[in-house]
Specification:
The chain contains nine helices and five strands. The chain has 264 residues and is mainly alpha-helical. The chain is globular, with a radius of gyration of 24 Å.
């Protein structure tokens, strides 16, 4: 009888220990959420399926089956990077991928449409009511916009002008949406390749040693491309074409038509 009572009290003790431990485990899990860099495999899978090698997007197919996109955005939202546990390259890859993923979400939420600029007010005032000002990127207690990601995070903290060849505005004149996820271990190689492809695409830029016809991206963000090297030095480096100091330049009209694959 005494042995039975001893076993009984041991079981009671174990029960209460488990009850006490469970909340602390849950608390630890919540505390650690977002501390470790995430995998971008979901995003890679989506891009391979819905984006071709030229950067054209199958928005209709994506709208019909958005599960992977939604799962990936949820993963991003619950794992915001921090400077303690994430390297600079891991954070850079995260924010570029987030920008591009949310842009696709923005398009399919309003699809079909001919241009991203159809989203929002007909009269668009920058930083007030353009598509890039919609605060739809959800971090629970905070919502941010594409403009916030671009100007207050990517441009402000990374000092990396090649981001302008990586983030995609869902338009024909944008640098092509890369059909693979940006990842830390090869992001420098990916950004260099994006720059080269964009500058050598005659539908977006025409570069010779003496004369340049450039995307308006280089006009809108001129300060980003002149520090620490000059614009011409950067263009020569990224394009592989030596540009003379006396070369003339002009900017090409921007085509805001949707970067969509032909509809069946």
């Amino acid at each position: 009888m005494k042995l039975f009572q001893g076993v009984y009290w041991v079981r009671i003790f174990k029960f209460f220990v488990i009850i006490l431990i469970l909340p602390s485990c849950a608390s630890k899990k919540t505390h650690e959420a977002g501390t470790e860099p995430i995998s971008h495999e979901l995003w890679n899978e989506l891009l391979i399926e819905h984006v071709d090698t030229s950067g054209w997007v199958n928005y209709q197919g994506l709208k019909e089956d958005p599960k992977i996109l939604l799962d990936y955005l949820a993963l991003l939202s619950s794992n915001r990077p921090n400077e303690v546990h994430w390297s600079g390259k891991e954070r850079l890859a995260y924010w570029i991928n987030l920008y591009n993923a949310f842009t696709l979400k923005l398009i399919i939420d309003h699809y079909p449409l001919e241009s991203i600029k159809e989203i929002g007010s007909r009269i668009q005032i920058p930083f007030i009511n353009s598509p890039w000002d919609i605060e739809g990127i959800d971090f629970g207690d905070e919502k941010i916009s594409l403009n916030y990601v671009e100007h207050q995070i990517l441009r402000k903290f990374f000092n990396e002008p090649r981001i302008h060849f990586a983030i995609n505005c869902a338009s024909v004149s944008c640098p092509a949406l890369r059909n693979e996820a940006y990842v830390a271990f090869k992001i420098d190689e990916q950004l260099t390749d994006q720059a080269h492809r964009f500058l050598n695409d005659p539908s977006k830029n025409v570069i010779t040693p003496e004369r340049l016809r450039l995307s308006k991206i280089f006009q809108w963000f001129s300060e980003d491309f002149n520090d620490p090297q000059t614009l011409y030095e950067n263009l020569s480096l990224w394009s592989g074409i030596p540009i003379n100091d006396y070369a003339t330049s002009q900017f090409i009209d921007y085509d805001w038509s949707l970067n969509e694959q032909p509809r069946p």
